[in-house]
Every structure is written in structure tokens, then in C-alpha cells.
């Protein structure tokens, strides 16, 4: 069903979450927001392009979910509390039914985290979704990439590799596991875990490009080395069932992108607190290595060096 | 020249404006910013897609300028002080020379307004530029669309119609006036004027979709009617020289988009203050009508009703 730009905006506005700190939301030249006193503002922005960041056959509701999820994941990796977002939606034609389906996914996740959509635009162009996400953190509490310290444990949440396995299955055109596909299409941003970790961990990053590649960003920023025991990487039952070859599976776990789990560095003394945080956040966490002096990421298996099939996910090379 | 995503990010980071209120800029999962105490946060977001919002032959530097300008214009229309922005850049291939040229235009305007680029992403996809812009306004000072009052004068800055004339010349493929084309490619966001107007005007909007169409948004939000004297619309020398037919010219002035001038409503008692503000901001302003009781926008010429050839610019219809 064709619709004008303003019809689409009305549809979007009708479904947004209400918040007291939104002075003026969708419908003016810009939104007016009241940040809480004494807090730092945390801002992330990520775009999803059709065929690059999601397969062309992805359901509109899943695109809506994922566009918000990847941005919430960035805030989770800072240990921030999300509050508001803006959305820029480019569509090849103004299709009200498509937008309604998109909003079903977008709003479901927005409501989980009480995030208000306060502005943005809808426009004509190849299918693309850009979201900016805004939240807060107490000064000094953010989980920066540059704050890992020698002696820290390295942890990961969830079971990385699932999303990449779904993408590999989709590319191969064979059997497709719906559990894995759901991990690709509807990643769970670890917002609660990130909030709890801001009290006990040193550094964090979310896994969008692949565990080892993202961990390398932490090492570079912190001027440290990471030793990762590939044998310790948590594996989901779905991944184990879908990929029988151990080395292929490990490559997906270590280098597959799009999981939006958190990889974080924390003092050894905080192990109990981290398990308690994970319990509160309803997500498993696994200790996979440690921070040492040096540079780069070293992966080992059975005590020897290990190399994955591919080492990351560059959106210009992928 | 091909480059990886991280090379491009390094190029972008190297050129951003420094500000004391940027706690952590480009390079982590999200930016950390320190909003000024007691101020409201103003947030806008606009996307430019190739072939929709700018002709395919637009110079990269002009695309960079315009992507920032249209967002600064949104803040100007709120009477806000700009501070920070984020940039999501989708490119069909990672071309470092293209990005450098783009940044030449983007940074030139960012430096004029001391706006720091604090985050975003670069990714693969059809050429598209999404910018989010953040600024501040004192509580109660924002120029809302809903605040026009019966009896107000209606004003416009600059000379609307120039950008639409350039687009018409480009579409026709004939003679092209470089002055008009510069108004299309390098619009001047009226930031200083907007700031000064926040002290004296009631309501404002920037002209992105066409003067009468954008003024209709103000009328709808304020529940008033606007009477516009088309004979009073300011016309540039370049437009007069390029378009000899009066009615065609008026249609461009009244309905052409992409000018990013401000249309605003202000009390009659503020006329002197508005001319003083315009003098400070180095932009002419013209009184073109008044706000009355009723609804909608009525355009007149020589005392009789007047209708333009087209009535607006919907990005899904344009």
C-alpha cells in the first residue's frame, strides 16, 4: 500500500514509547530532551543496509528488531542505560504494510528497554535503516575499550558463532536451523549485563565483527595482549548440531560476526560478582582467557597456537 | 584508492573538531558527552541518498557540506546551539580519496559552527549519508512549530526558490547558473539567525520541502491560518536572470524545496528586533504575510488568490 512520507511518520509516531524526559518528540524540526543532571550522555549510531547487514529475505519485523538491537548493544558495551533513539528509514517505495511490520519488531525491543523514538526521517532510497541511540552513564563508570589491565580475566557472554553459522547456512542455500537464524535476525542486546558490569569490569566491547577481531580493538586501545583459549569458547547446542567439523565451528565462534554478545575484561577478584551479574541478567558468561603484557590477540588450543579460517568481518570486505 | 573500514575511520577521526565537552569521541562502542547543566538537548537526524537528495554528479565535498547543513538547519529552526554530530556513511566501495573530498566539505562547515564529530559508522551500500546533530537550548526557549499566534508577522530569510531553480536547470540539461547551483549544493544553515530569533520569535521551521508546504506544518501544529503575499517573496538576482517567466519563478519561490532558509512567525512589536537579528546574522529577512484565525495556508497575489504550479516536495513523490 503506497503512503506519503507524512502518513508513514504518523504511523511511527503513534507507536512510540512515552517518557517523561521527552519534552518534544516526533513532529518538529528536532526533538527536545531533558538529560538527567550529573550524568554523561552516551551516543551510538549504526546503519543496516539490505544485502550487507541482513539477507534480502529478512522479515521486516526482524530488520526493525535488529536495527535497534545493534545500537542497544553498543550502549550495553559502554555499561549505559538507554533512553531515546532516532530512526532514519530509506525505502524504495512508501509501503505502509512494510513499515507496520518493521515497527512490530522495532517497538517490541524498544518497549523491553523503555526506549522512546524521538525523531528521524523517512525517505526514498535503497532499503537502509540508520538508528542513533542515546543513554546515560555516571561519570567514570563507562566501560571503555582502553581500560583493560594486565591480569584481567577475559569473558564472553552467550554463545558466539551462532549468527555466523546462520549466515553460512543461508549463503550455502541448504538446511537452515531456525534457532541459529533467530540469533542472526533477533540478537539480544546485553543491556542489563552491561549495566551490572559497569560496577565490576574494566573494559567491554560488543561482538559485531567477530570475537578475536573485536578483542583486538580492546588490546590496541589498552596497549595489552589477550590470550584466548579457543577450547574454552562456549558452544550452543544448535551450533554443535549444525556444524559437526570442530575447526569450522571454532572459526565461526572465534571470528564470526553479528552476535552482539559482550566480550569484557575484569579483575580476577570479581569472578563471583560477574557470575552474580550474569545470573541477574539471565545470560551465561564464560571465562575464555586473560590479559597479559604485550600486544595483539593470541589464540591457543590444547596449549598450542591456533589460527581461525578467517579473522574478522570488515563491512567493506564482507 | 581502496581502503578498509578502519582506515576510513582513522581518516575521519584525524579531522574532527576538538571540544572540551567530548569526554570520549570516535573509537569506542559509543561516544561519551557532557551536556551543559540545566539545558535541554536538541536532536535532529536527516539522511541524504544519492539521486534523491542530491544529483548523482554532485561533488563529494558538496555532499559532505550539505549532509551537515541540513541537520544544522534543523537546529537553527529550533533556535538551538549546535555542539556534536554523528555520521553514518554508506559507500559502494571504500574510496579514501572520495572520503577525503567529502570531509573537505563536511569539516569546513563543522568548523564554522564548532561542531565535533563524535561517532557513527562507515559501511558498504548504495551512497547514503546519515547525520545526527545534537545541540542545546534553554528550557522554554525552543522555536516550536506549535507556537505561532494570531496577529504574528510571517517572515522568511534569504531568497527561497534558488535551490529548486538549480535542480530544474540540472533536470532540463540546459544552461546552469553556478550561483543557483551553489545554493543547492552548499546551503547556508541559518544557525546565528535561529539563535537570535529564539529571543524574539514565536515559531520557526526550515524550508526543506517548500515554503508553503513547510508553513502549512506550522499552521497545523499551531491551529492557525497563514496568509502569504506572493508578491512580497524575495527574489535573488540569479533567480530573476535564470527564470524570466514570473509564474514559474513564483512557483519555485513558493514551493521549491532544499533552500534551508528559515520561515518564522513573530509578534508585530518585534519587527525592529528581527531586523537587528538579521543584521547580526548577515542574512536578509523579508516580511511575507501574517498569521490569522483559521486553518491552512492562503497565498495571494495582487489581492487575489494565487496557486502555485506544485505545492511541495514529498521525498517519496519527488
UniProtKB/TrEMBL annotation, chains A, B:
<feature type="binding site">
    <location>
        <position position="313"/>
    </location>
    <ligand>
        <name>substrate</name>
    </ligand>
</feature>
<feature type="binding site">
    <location>
        <position position="74"/>
    </location>
    <ligand>
        <name>Mg(2+) 2</name>
    </ligand>
</feature>
<comment type="similarity">
    <text>Belongs to the thiamine-monophosphate kinase family.</text>
</comment>
<keyword id="KW-0067">ATP-binding</keyword>
<feature type="binding site">
    <location>
        <position position="258"/>
    </location>
    <ligand>
        <name>substrate</name>
    </ligand>
</feature>
<comment type="pathway">
    <text>Cofactor biosynthesis; thiamine diphosphate biosynthesis; thiamine diphosphate from thiamine phosphate: step 1/1.</text>
</comment>
<feature type="domain" description="PurM-like C-terminal">
    <location>
        <begin position="149"/>
        <end position="299"/>
    </location>
</feature>
<dbReference type="GO" id="GO:0009030">
    <property type="term" value="F:thiamine-phosphate kinase activity"/>
</dbReference>
<feature type="binding site">
    <location>
        <position position="53"/>
    </location>
    <ligand>
        <name>substrate</name>
    </ligand>
</feature>
<feature type="binding site">
    <location>
        <position position="206"/>
    </location>
    <ligand>
        <name>Mg(2+) 3</name>
    </ligand>
</feature>
<dbReference type="Pfam" id="PF02769">
    <property type="entry name" value="AIRS_C"/>
</dbReference>
<keyword id="KW-0784">Thiamine biosynthesis</keyword>
<dbReference type="Pfam" id="PF00586">
    <property type="entry name" value="AIRS"/>
</dbReference>
<feature type="binding site">
    <location>
        <position position="74"/>
    </location>
    <ligand>
        <name>Mg(2+) 4</name>
    </ligand>
</feature>
<keyword id="KW-0808">Transferase</keyword>
<keyword id="KW-0418">Kinase</keyword>
<feature type="binding site">
    <location>
        <position position="29"/>
    </location>
    <ligand>
        <name>Mg(2+) 3</name>
    </ligand>
</feature>
<feature type="binding site">
    <location>
        <begin position="120"/>
        <end position="121"/>
    </location>
    <ligand>
        <name>ATP</name>
    </ligand>
</feature>
<feature type="binding site">
    <location>
        <position position="209"/>
    </location>
    <ligand>
        <name>Mg(2+) 5</name>
    </ligand>
</feature>
<feature type="binding site">
    <location>
        <position position="121"/>
    </location>
    <ligand>
        <name>Mg(2+) 1</name>
    </ligand>
</feature>
<dbReference type="InterPro" id="IPR006283">
    <property type="entry name" value="ThiL-like"/>
</dbReference>
<feature type="binding site">
    <location>
        <position position="145"/>
    </location>
    <ligand>
        <name>ATP</name>
    </ligand>
</feature>
<dbReference type="InterPro" id="IPR036921">
    <property type="entry name" value="PurM-like_N_sf"/>
</dbReference>
<dbReference type="InterPro" id="IPR036676">
    <property type="entry name" value="PurM-like_C_sf"/>
</dbReference>
<keyword id="KW-0460">Magnesium</keyword>
<dbReference type="InterPro" id="IPR016188">
    <property type="entry name" value="PurM-like_N"/>
</dbReference>
<dbReference type="InterPro" id="IPR010918">
    <property type="entry name" value="PurM-like_C_dom"/>
</dbReference>
<feature type="binding site">
    <location>
        <position position="29"/>
    </location>
    <ligand>
        <name>Mg(2+) 4</name>
    </ligand>
</feature>
<keyword id="KW-0547">Nucleotide-binding</keyword>
<feature type="binding site">
    <location>
        <position position="46"/>
    </location>
    <ligand>
        <name>Mg(2+) 1</name>
    </ligand>
</feature>
<keyword id="KW-0479">Metal-binding</keyword>
<comment type="function">
    <text>Catalyzes the ATP-dependent phosphorylation of thiamine-monophosphate (TMP) to form thiamine-pyrophosphate (TPP), the active form of vitamin B1.</text>
</comment>
<protein>
    <recommendedName>
        <fullName>Thiamine-monophosphate kinase</fullName>
        <ecNumber>2.7.4.16</ecNumber>
    </recommendedName>
</protein>
<feature type="binding site">
    <location>
        <position position="46"/>
    </location>
    <ligand>
        <name>Mg(2+) 2</name>
    </ligand>
</feature>
<feature type="domain" description="PurM-like N-terminal">
    <location>
        <begin position="27"/>
        <end position="137"/>
    </location>
</feature>
<feature type="binding site">
    <location>
        <position position="74"/>
    </location>
    <ligand>
        <name>Mg(2+) 3</name>
    </ligand>
</feature>
<feature type="binding site">
    <location>
        <position position="208"/>
    </location>
    <ligand>
        <name>ATP</name>
    </ligand>
</feature>
